[in-house]
Amino acid sequence: MDIAQIPTNLLVSNSTSIIHPIMHALSSVLLLGSCAFQAVLGRPESDLFKARRQTELLRRDVDSFVATEEPIALEQILCNIGPSGCHASGVGSGLLIASPSRSDPDYIAGQARLQTVSNPSGSLSDGTGLAEPKYNTDFSAFTGAWGRPQRDGPALRATTLITYANWLVDNGYESTATSVVWPIVRNDLAYVAQYWNQTGFDLWEEVQGSSFFTIAASHRALVDGSNFAAKIGQSCTACDAIAPQILCFQQSFWSSGGYINSNINVNNGRSGKDANSVLTSISNFDPSLGCDSATFQPCSERALANHKVYVDAFRSIYTLNSGKPSGGAVAVGRYPEDSYYNGNPWYLNTLAAAEQLYDALYVWEQQGSITVTSTSLAFFKALYSSAATGTYASGSSTYTALRDAVLNYAEGFVNNVATYAASNGSLAEQYDRNNGTPLSARDLTWSYAAFLTAVARRSGVVPEGWAQGNKLATSVPGGCAATSIVGSYSAATATSFPANQTPGTGVPTTTVKPTTTRATTTATACATQTAVSVSFTVRKVTNFGQTVKIVGSIPALGSWDTSKAVAFSASSYTSSNPIWTGSVTLPAGTAIQYKYIVVNTDGSVTWEADPNRSLTIAASCSSTSSRSDTWQ
């Protein structure tokens, strides 16, 4: 039934089940100098100094956890991909399992492009089967009871494939993007335009109604579809017609209580305070949209106000959060009324709470200001009691105080995960509300992905924007209409990549930007290197006697020990081009964090500013790589 204009007290049924969706893959340290300065002089520490010292210690703890956990998270995600992943024996090629757990709970759910498989949700002929949330790992339909349909599935698949297809086009593979990827995407976009306005199950697979996450994912998918279609010379008229109506409906989830009611058109006795809303904000993050409220961008007044209400809902219900200050980071779960496994914090949701704040910090730094409104004031005052409405430019004391308070808050959420992660770095689905013991599905792909994306945002690595200047992204019509367009669906017939566009044992010899002749590249087999000599160049003005060095998260870079930092050469340094250079051999396939330091003539060390820099050493044919930076 159509729901865009149905009152929120509509009674519909709901189904309780376990979750399986797989969604969305930083390090920052403040080295504030000697924290013993006042104590040495025999003076009492000021409250501000104590806060800064505590902040420094917290960020060092988080840095250490990030450096240890990042390679584990990446490895464990790869382990869950069939057919050769270490946890995915017998899983179909290209399928990504939610968790290798076969007990507690008993499920291995496949995620793949299974559009043609008829299933309990329906078939491809009318598109209904595209919203089936679960398949067996041999590509066959799962026919057991489940929360279906889940209408976010086609939208998320379209967005994921469009992201990859954009890379194909940008690297000279437009023919593959058009012939292989577009037919799959076209089905999913047709589904979204036709069925967006009907109820379905939320991302937790429990509530049948209108889900904030699903509606936002649907809007983004159609904007993505409109942009991508134009990029490859196609069209998506349904995308252009329906996207504004979905965005219009999305505004109705904002409640009078100053937060996002994550599920409407359902009467399930819940408050609507749900991680669904925070996951939506970070999933649809586009730095180019700034703090746009219509799309609930992470730094928007609505998203920040909602973040506070959501987090506060868990402060008093978990024993783990006892004694935590009112403005401090805490363990958070799905929603306060949760009873699954007795209702516990989830790793992925605690990380999502941090990620939204890292997103906001990135945008504030880029735009050079923080705006506090009456809607977001409570969020800021909880972290900085002197906060008041207004716009504060970077460089001002208020901007610095607000920024530091939010950064410290974000670090606290990551530190919670560090505290309750398994000793071997494994991230399960949940951790016990009383003692922090990992619970439920082990090695949850979504938990690892949530860690990796939070770490990336912490390092200032952000996703490519999806709005791309398209007015469909933020234009809210004056009135909402429950409009839909019936789509046409057909099986994708080209389902394998051409051999010359599929790196097998090798990689493409070159990367070619698309030209008017649509040039493509060929692949040449080679021996993948196990170590790469990385040439670093950094621009830094120095004085005579000073030396620039590099230090980082792995032994080859000193493991953050400045006495083991790698010295650079000033042989190419000139007054007009003050560069320092050096080469370090690093293990291929490794993700690292690093910073540059200046060692002064007296042996003291000056660190460049936050955030830490991030670099993944590609495992490829090449034994060399280069990196060019400017001192920050």
Automatic annotation (TrEMBL):
Residues 526-632 form the CBM20 domain. It is an enzyme of class 3 (hydrolase). GO terms for cellular component: fungal-type vacuole. The keyword Transcription does not apply. The keyword Isomerase does not apply. Substrate binds at residue 146. InterPro entries: 6-hairpin_glycosidase_sf (IPR008928), 6hp_glycosidase-like_sf (IPR012341), Carb-bd-like_fold (IPR013784), CBM20 (IPR002044), CBM20_glucoamylase (IPR034836), GH15-like (IPR011613), Glucoamylase (IPR000165), Glucoamylase_active_site (IPR046966). Keywords: Carbohydrate metabolism, Glycoprotein, Glycosidase, Hydrolase, Polysaccharide degradation, Signal. The active site is at residues 202, 205. Its EC number is 3.2.1.3. One of its GO terms (biological process) is polysaccharide catabolic process. SMART domains: CBM_2 (SM01065). One of its GO terms (molecular function) is glucan 1,4-alpha-glucosidase activity. It catalyses: Hydrolysis of terminal (1->4)-linked alpha-D-glucose residues successively from non-reducing ends of the chains with release of beta-D-glucose. Belongs to the glycosyl hydrolase 15 family. This is Glucoamylase. It comes from Neoarthrinium moseri. The lineage of its organism: Eukaryota, Fungi, Dikarya, Ascomycota, Pezizomycotina.
